[in-house]
Each structure stands twice: as C-alpha cells, then as structure tokens.
Amino acid sequence: MPPPPPRILELIRRGAEIALNPQPEWLAELDAATLAGETRRPIADDPVLSAGLRRVNRANLLRWAAANATAPGVPVPAPEGDEQRLMARDIVRRGLDEPALDSYRAGESVAGRLWTRIACSLTTDPEELRDLLDVSLRSISAFVDGCVAAMSADLRAERAALTGSNHADRMQAVALLLDGAPIARARAEARLGYPLAGSHTAAVLWVDDLDSDFAQLDRAADLLASAAGRPPILDVTASAATRWLWTAARPDPAALRAGLDRLPAVRIALGPTAAGVNGFRRSHLDALTTQRMLARLASVQRLASHDEVELVALLTQDLEGADRFVRRVLGPLDGPPAEAVRAYLAEQCNATRAAARLFTHRNTLLRRLAQADAVLPRPLTENPLEVAAALELRHWRGQD
C-alpha cells in the first residue's frame, strides 16, 4: 500500500496532538466501556484490578497518540514492560483472562468513536476525511491487535509460571470455597495449610497507588497476625497490590490503627468473625463489600470493618440518593456540633459518656448539642435514627 499523502499525515499529527490531552469526559467514556458488562464485573468490582485496567488502557491511548504526533502513519508497536506483566499476573491469579482481553476490544471501540470526532473537527473535505479515517482507524486496529497479542503472551507465560505452584493450589482451593463448590474440608485444609473448622476473620489488604511500595503489604500482613495474637493465618496474594487474609482470631482494631500509621500506603477492610466453611466465605465476601464501599465513596478511612459500615454500604448503592438524604436530614449541621451529635448517638444518648469519648467537658457537649438542634431541619429527639445514619454516611465519605 502506498504511503499516505503528506496532507493526511499532517492531519493525523494534529489529531494525535489533540488526543494527547484528552478531555475528562473522553477518559470517563473509555473507563466505563472497558469495565462494562457482566463478564468484566469481577474486574470492575475490584478497586485494585479496575484501577490497573484503567491505567493500562489510558496508557495505550496516550502511547498511540504520542507515536502519531511524532511519526504519523507509522505502525505503533505494542507496549512492553513490567506494568503490563504485573497486570497479566494479577489477572491470571484471579482467573479473569478472557474479561481482561475483552476490555481491549471495548477500548478500541471507544477510541475509534473519539478519534472520529477529532477527525471530523480537522477537515470539512469529504475525501480528506475519508482518507484520514481509513489510515488512522487501520492504525488503531493494528495497534490494539498488537496489544491483545502481547497481553495474551504475558497471560500464557504467567499461567505457565503458576501451574503447579503452591500459590496456584491455594488460590484454586480458595476459589472453590468462595464459590460454594463441593470440596472436602480435609482436602481444602491440606491444600491451604489452614484449619477451617473454627472461627475466621477475613481481611482484604491493598494499596490504592499502584506506584506504592508493595512490600508494605508484607508488613501489614505481619501486623494483622500480631494484632490477632498470632493464631493460624492464611495469606493469599490476590494481585500485586492486594492480599486476602484469614485469621482464626479477630485482630485488635486499636493495634491495627497504630500499626497502620507506619504503613501509609496500606488500607485494610475486615469482615465479621464467623465459624466454619460458611463463615470463611461470608467473612471474606463482607470484607470485599467493605473494600468496595470505601472505593465507591472515595473514603480516606484506612481501616474499616463490615460491622461498622454495613448500613452505610447498603445506603450508598445509590450515591446521589445518599447525598440527597444527607443534605435533607442534616441541613447545615457541621463541625463540632455534628461531632457532638455523632458521639452522643453512638453512646446511646448518654451525655457523660459522649463527652468522655470526645475528651471534652459535659457542659461543652450539651452546648454543642443545643447548637445542633438549632440548625437541624428537625429536632434530634424527633429524628435520631435518620440523623445517625446521615452522620455515618458523611463520616465514611470523609466529609467531616
């Protein structure tokens, strides 16, 4: 095929420069498409996997644009490097190979639509537009084909590396238990090296920033074991940035909070303590619910247990509705009066205990409660349940 004429190459270069500075709504459309659909739901529901996939897809978009801004029309090689290999390893560990590859094709569809919008802004000549789209869309398709081939190769390499490993055995046994599949308890215990008959508290440990020091996760796992009194513990690497743990005793929250001060990148979500195989499963699923709620709310809280947030997790399935609820119930209530009301309700309307909780004088607490009543849309005595729920919502959203 003859090379495109200089005019078409110049239009591609100009379009690529626009694509190098994508509008926020373009990136939002790309993110939504690559994580949409039932097959990709397990990735979309995991804050770490979804962040990694968004990052890879955005990087691919910018890679193609940067290459064409420099050398328009020249084939763009597929990316190579540690970031994609880490993503492949995480995907294989979770058995999500096909959904991950699907996301590339979904991203290609969005990129093609966005590029067509850019191309239509560059020329009004129908023939130029036809040639521009023909050359550039072929280039995008070839680039995505290369990305899919490179990821497929990384996935095959990771599957081969994991086959027969202790980690693969443990992860497979965990997956069977979490799916409720029939597996003998004795067989599962032998593969896991962990007793299933007693009580379990599940924990999800993760880092939000994928450029963080992942070694902090090792120290956090040791912290969790220490805070639980070092009972039997099961530690599974779910991804480079995520660990799943189960412990036979519940960790002390105060010890965890103190230890997390030395591990600024790590966050921990705890499930409830429950017994047996069903408890093993239920505690983990509730820990995942807690992790997803923190991600959904963009919460700054670094330690949360399902017992604390179960109501908030249910109420925030509809974030816009939850925000309207908070505004309606609390009105302008904020600051120290809001803190006083939250402590007062948490202490079952006992002013003395609430004052002690806030390390303040009882008279100060009563004065702040009076200030709160003055601004609440309805008096606290008439509406304590809704006020408590609204304050919890705002607390976990990091808005107090």
From TrEMBL:
Residues 185-293 form the CdaR GGDEF-like domain. Residues 339-391 form the PucR C-terminal helix-turn-helix domain. This is Transcriptional activator protein. Pfam families: GGDEF_2, HTH_30. The lineage of its organism: Bacteria, Bacillati, Actinomycetota, Actinomycetes, Kitasatosporales. It comes from Kitasatospora cheerisanensis KCTC 2395. It comes from the Bacteria. Belongs to the CdaR family.
